[in-house]
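> @MW can you paste both from yesterday?
MW: sure, first one:
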Amino acid sequence: MTGPAVDVHAHLLLPEVDALVAGQPGLAHAKALDARRNGPQALSVSGPMVAARIPLLTDPAARLAAMDTQGVDVQLVSPSPSHYHYWADELTARQIWAAAHTATAAHCATAPDRLRGLGLVPLQHPHLAVEALDHALAAGLLGVELSSHAPGVELSDPALEPFWARAAETGAVLFLHPFGCTLDERLDRWYLSNTVGQPTENAVALSHLIFSGVLDRHPALKILAAHGGGYLPTHIGRSDHAWRARPDARGCAHAPSSYLRRLYFDSLVHDPCVLRELVRAAGADRVLLGSDFPFDMGTEDPLAALAAADLPPADHAAVRGANAAALLGL
């Protein structure tokens, strides 16, 4: 197999950011909301799970050894979504992104041929988003990670227009990775907060980007959606029908399904049939290998998960690494 295998969905824990926010009232409120949304059983499992993976999340040597075992040549490393801290005021937000960018760049600098990084952007303060993006790029990162929404801010918010414009201008990679689902207590058992909540948030966020015309106004955007884009790519026919049948669904210039080929998606869908459908719907050149390293809702063997989809050889090679190499400029 020629070319590097590139995993675009891998995470990093940042003790520097944790130290910055420790003891702040906003953090306590956010943790209480997280506990309410996930439920006590999920928290009792997640705590030990994360603790057991601290070396993989913080130690570059442990990360590289695990990549060698997986057969992954390059990772695109993004901060754990627990570091978004969208409750933070402007001063704290600036401190968070500065610390996150410095620490992520340092982590990746230990193996610059194998690790590339993303930063953070404060969606709760849209007027600071361009500043945060520019800071990430200046630190040597390839772009930023963002959630599906922030309190009071959807991705269709006009206040984010300068951010989308700057991202398109610079060619920055925007990794859309939800954290928390606003369905709240309806999903507080059986880990529904993640298994149902995350793909729901992906679908809602992408629909805001499509229907609001963000992708019409900024066609050069490089948006990479985690979790295969959630429910949207495999249920896009319903969006197309609404766009054709209802004038109030005509916010975008073209049928919603056409925008799937302007987006990028990771391969983390946990089902070879769904992965094949994602490739069909979005195009083989728009799907990239993703593992959610090293969390338990990811896959420990992303290359085996890709092989199980039994894609044509050219499509397999594209998803394995060729698409990511082109997107990331490897």
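MW: second:
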Amino acid sequence: MTISNDLDYCLTQLLDFKPAKLLPEETIQSICHDLKVQLLETPNIMTISSPITLVGDIHGQFHDLLEIFKIGGSPPHTNYLFLGDYVDRGYYSIETICLLILLKLRYPNRIFLIRGNHESRTITTNYGFYSEVLNKYNGSSRVWQYITDLFDYLPLGAVIDNKIFATHGGLSPSCQILDQIRTVDRFREIPHDGIMADLVWSDPDLEIRDFKLSPRGAGYLFGAEVMNKFCHENDVVQLIRAHQLCNEGYVNYWEGKCLTVWSAPNYCYRCGNKASVLEILHTNYGKNSFQKDSVDGQIFNVFEASPENDDDTINGKSVNGNDNVDSFYKSKSVDYFL
């Protein structure tokens, strides 16, 4: 059996069965190792060409990931850039990240993954992924170890058509030019501060112009002056990022100079928000092309939560091994902001 056939077989376990079948521990160890080898050759900032579809936070909402592929097109027919936060919160973090790992291995030039703030040992220990692994693998944490070790290899951002910078969170006062990101040692746990931390934790803020400490406890808020300077210094026209819950699925800042795309509808199965993916068809526009609600060549596809999420919740589907949704979130004192 060839490598591609092995991957195809694993993909069928996740895509052709309801519920999706869990991959064995040894299979997950193997695919994580193979992807680490591939990512060793990947720079901190990838260079990507349009057309491409950008996907924001997924947070273990596996059914909604499948909806995204229905809306945007299945790989390899559509190119995808995933902006991080694949695990925690949802019922199916393991299935979600395993599917993305397999797709990246199967279609390495069509699927691109970057790191979010939840691709971290510390965060996943507290927000669900670790508990889910223990519950689904009979108390063993090995799958969590394999996958969180892989997280250390994920790149930190991408430049699309040399015009758009994409990252999970936002900008850093420690970084004025992209070359500073290119020299960061990313092969480690996300630190508490510095460029790497800011890229996965920071947020735009319409009320300020410069940088301000973030109420998240990590990263910064950044304003219009910071955004304009970053674009000028790096000869880019736009920042696209995820990281923040959006009631309408996306948010447009500074007439399109910064966009947030959020891809987890009805976040935590209770927030009631819409979600979106962002299609970039081309980047044949200049620095003054942005308008309030749209940019030529960019389309937000907005969608609602999959009905299967409601079925899980109504039927008392446990969240990461707990008895019910309410007890899980009450016990964790969930902060939707993280």
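> thanks! The chain has one domain: 26-304.
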